[in-house]
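Sequence only, no structure available. Ideas?
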Amino acid sequence: VSNFNAQASDAAFSLINYMRLKNLSLSWQLPSALMRKANIQNMRVYLLAQNLLTFTNGYTGFDPETKSLGLPPLRVITLGLNVTL
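Reply:
I predicted one. Tokens follow.
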């Protein structure tokens, strides 16, 4: 128990090298020629993603940003469609 308390506190320091892809946003707009044929003013498809990847060099401890007990930040992916008629 004492070892766990030392790891969870700021008494134990270690060098952690990591790289995280936190936010990604992609969108695609339908070409204007196709929108005219479909009688649409605007149409856009988008993808938003959070906490996609974390790269470490063998680190197996707490999450380096939150120090949570084994759970990394939740991965959230949103796919959407915006249409203006």
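The chain has a mean pLDDT of 83.
Hope that gets you unstuck.
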